[in-house]
Design a protein that fits this description.
The protein contains three helices and eight strands. The chain is an alpha+beta fold. The strands form two sheets. It has a six-stranded antiparallel sheet with strand order 1-7-8-4-2-6. A two-stranded antiparallel ribbon has the order 3-5. A hairpin with a 2-residue loop joins strand 7 and strand 8. Helix 1 crosses helix 3. The chain is globular and about 40 Å long. The protein starts with a helix and ends in an 8-residue tail after the last strand.
Length: 150
C-alpha cells in the first residue's frame, strides 16, 4: 500500500503541473460509478514487485486530459488523443521510477496499453476516484496488467 500512496501523491501533483488542474480523491465507492463508454490507459513498471498504474475515464474526461496534456485541439478520441494520455502516464511513471531508484528499487517501464470500455481485471487492485476541474476519472493501481486485449 505504501507504493500506491506514493504513486497517488505524484499523480495528483502531476495533474496540477502537467494538466493544469487541481485534483482530489473522493471517498465515493468505485462500485457506485458508471464508466461506460470509457477509455483507459496503463503502463507496467517491471521490477521485483508487480506494479501497473493507469486511468479509466469517460470519453469526455479522457479527451480533456489528452487536450490539456498535449496542449492541442483534439476534436475526438483518436490515435493522437490516446497517445497523449499514454505519454502523460509515461512521464508520471518515469518520475516515479526515479523516486523508486532513490529507495534502491529499480524498475523499467513497459510499453503503455490502452483500451475502450475497460473493466479492470488484475490482482491487488486499488481503484480510486480522482476529481478534477474537468471531471472525474478512476485511478487504477494493480499488481498486474488490468487492461485486457479486446
Amino acid at each position: 500500500m505504501e507504493i500506491y500512496a506514493e504513486y497517488m501523491e505524484l499523480l495528483l501533483d502531476s495533474l496540477q503541473s502537467m494538466a493544469g488542474t487541481q485534483a482530489v480523491l473522493s471517498p465515493v465507492s468505485i462500485t457506485e460509478m458508471a464508466w461506460e463508454p470509457n477509455h483507459g490507459a496503463s503502463q507496467a513498471l517491471k521490477s521485483a514487485m508487480g506494479f501497473v498504474p493507469g486511468i479509466i475515464a469517460t470519453d469526455d474526461v479522457f479527451l480533456e486530459l489528452a487536450k490539456r496534456y498535449s496542449q492541442e485541439e483534439l476534436p475526438d478520441i483518436d490515435e493522437l488523443a490516446v497517445d497523449s494520455v499514454e505519454e502523460f502516464l509515461n512521464v508520471v511513471n518515469g518520475l516515479f521510477t526515479i523516486q523508486m531508484a532513490k529507495e534502491k528499487i529499480t524498475a523499467e517501464l513497459d510499453l503503455p496499453r490502452s483500451g475502450e470500455n475497460v473493466q479492470p481485471v488484475g490482482g491487488d487492485q486499488l481503484r480510486l476516484r480522482v476529481i478534477t476541474a474537468f471531471g472525474s476519472f478512476e485511478a487504477v493501481l494493480s499488481a498486474d496488467e488490468f487492461i485486457t486485449e479486446q
